[in-house]
Amino acid sequence: AIVMDCQTGAIYALANHPSFDPNIFAGGIPAMDWEQLRDDPAHPLNNKAAGGLYPPGSTFKMCTALAGLEAGVINEYSSVFCPGHYDFGNNRFHCWKAGGHGTVNVVRALAESCDTFFYKMSTAVGIDRIADMARRLGIGSALDFDLPEVKAGIVPDTAWKKKQADKVWHPGETINASIGQGYMLASPLQLAVMTSRIVNGGKAVKPWLAGYSGDKRLYKVDETPLGINPKHLELVKRGMEQVLLPGGTAVGSRIKEEGFEMGGKTGTSQVKRITKAERAQGVRRQEDLPWHLRHHALFVGYAPVSNPRYVCAVIVEHGGSGSGAAAPIAHDIMLEVQKRNPATKAMEKV
Fold first, then answer.
1. Distance between CA 25 and CA 142 in Å, rounded?
2. 84/147 Cα distance (integer angstroms)
3. What is the largest CA-CA distance in the chain?
4. Which of 7, 194, 341, 347 could form a disulfide with 137 if both were Cys (CB 3.0 to 4.6 A apart)?
5. What is the distance between the alpha carbons of residues 156 and 132, in angstroms, rounded to a whole number?
6. Could you tell me the pTM of the whole model?
7. Pairing state of beta strands 296-303 and 263-269?
8. Does residue 225 have a cis peptide bond before it, meaning omega lies within 30 degrees of 0?
9. Is residue 202 a contact partner of residue 13, using CB atoms and an 8 Å limit?
10. How far is residue 256's CA from residue 250's CA, in Å, rounded to a whole number?
11. pLDDT reported for residue 28
12. CB burial class (10 A; 0-12, 13-18, 19+) of residue 346?
């Protein structure tokens, strides 16, 4: 989990669980303790919040939505009928909601995380424009962050696939990428930056840890505009706000305290592909699968919705669903962050 100031880029919290006590290395760690840490399947020695790479799942839908809006492929009133799947060529791409969402626009598609809306839109937008928007929002970059373990991740496009595999990009791969699956990989840090740049009005804020050395200021607030239409950003924010309202995928994690309300986006990224045969037989419940085959649970959020200041990104490895595992954690974090209000003190010197 990460907590970031969407206006200044300050990282207030960066946490990994399970973790370890660094003091055990001070006097030489016993071989048994080292082997236990080294062989732990949850990898406690890795800084996964800054350098872990995961399919972003539906948290990436904000990128796809903005790419479609900026390209003029969709607007506020564009709608798609979702019957629970999208047929393209000889392939059927399933929405997470088997019975479908009915007719949805971009705001409702974000609020209810309708896959079909983004499947159809992405085929008209194309992977290169989606990838360009992702990079503008901070995905696919090491972000010049303070820690060496940060990784750039992967934002695939036609040139990337040609370079990596000397193969052409296929439209079906765009459909997968549109909902943050396929080759797409991002870190929690990048997802926090992406969310910050969306909710702060499209400013190219960058994350930082160390603010001052004595009285010397070490950071610079980057307010360079990304050139994204403010109306499009507001439209996406409206969808994110409705994620936490009745009908939204994370309504159970809404912050009810007045003035502390949160907006956000759930995500659930597949670790194991569901085959056609498995779907025909009835997909097993996530809790029936071995832990390492269960979906990752993701949530990105911001608060307060009236004047965004704080952003969080939460990933629960193999947690099952973003709404069930990640969003409740984000609720607790964002409520506590606002009550403590660390930004007040952090900004006194600015």
1. 28
2. 43
3. 65
4. 194
5. 10
6. 0.91
7. antiparallel
8. no
9. no
10. 13
11. 85
12. middle
User: 26-30, 182-186, 275-279: which has the highest mean pLDDT?
Assistant: 182-186
**Residue 58 annotated in active site:** yes
Beta bridge partners of 82: 102
Locate 252 and state its tokens. Answer: 């159970």
Distance between CA atoms of residues 3 and 155, nearest Å: 23
Rounded to the nearest 10°, the torsion over CA 291, 292, 297, 298 is: 150
Place of tokens 């907590």: 3
Q: Are 326 and 200 in contact (CB under 8 A)?
A: no
Annotated catalytic residue within 58, 141, 321, 323: 58
Q: Which amino acid appears at position 267 of this protein?
A: G
Q: How many CB atoms lie within 10 A of CB 146?
A: 14
205-233 average pLDDT score: 92
pLDDT in tens, 42-70: 888 899 999 999 999 999 999 999 999 99
User: Do 50 and 150 contact (CB within 8 A), yes or no?
Assistant: yes
CA end-to-end span of the chain, whole Å? 26
Taking residue 175's Cβ as centre, other Cβ atoms within 10 Å add up to 23
Predicted confidence (pLDDT) per residue in 127-156, tens digit: 999 999 999 999 999 999 999 999 999 999
